[in-house]
Amino acid sequence: MANIVLFNKPYGVLSQFSDNDGHPGLKKYMNHPGFYPMGRLDRDSEGLLLLSDDGQLQARVADPKHKMEKTYIAQVEGDITSSAIDSLCDGIELNDGITKPAKAKKINPPAIAPRIPLIRSRESIPTSWIELIITEGRNRQVRRMTAAVGFPTLRLIRTAIGPWQLGNIKAGEYQLEKIHLPQQHKVKAASRKKPKPRQVRKP
Asked: Would you name the residues annotated as active-site residues?
């Protein structure tokens, strides 16, 4: 049995418990000693951030080799074209290599609260929304991908990580769940030495 927190991270909040450089950390929203984030979400991105008190589960979810799908919705500048969507699906050449094939599609604007602060807007330039599913975890990957096809990201929200969904969790709120780990996971965890307490490193 492991405990997992599904947190809807607001814009401007850090994916760590400590504050830094005037930006709030997770301690403003929760107090669960022994829980650590499973992966990260950029400060200027929103949405689902997972935390757990199980070190092995943390490593499995955060490790790119397990190819766990991460789903994002992004508001981009401009009316995104079908050719740009095709390019996102095929793979984009970034400065750290070509991205793996993704799943992408244009979607209707979601019924969500405006971001605080509001995104920039230009009357002469429309915006559009896409859903993008990737299995990698490169730094600012979604933003770099949409910029590479000519449609910079204005707002980015992660809605799912593997089987975990953001659902109706409001920004700044979280949901605590208990999950049963596979027997194989338990055996591997028991066979390893007890890890040293993990420290949250400041960026």
From this structure: 42
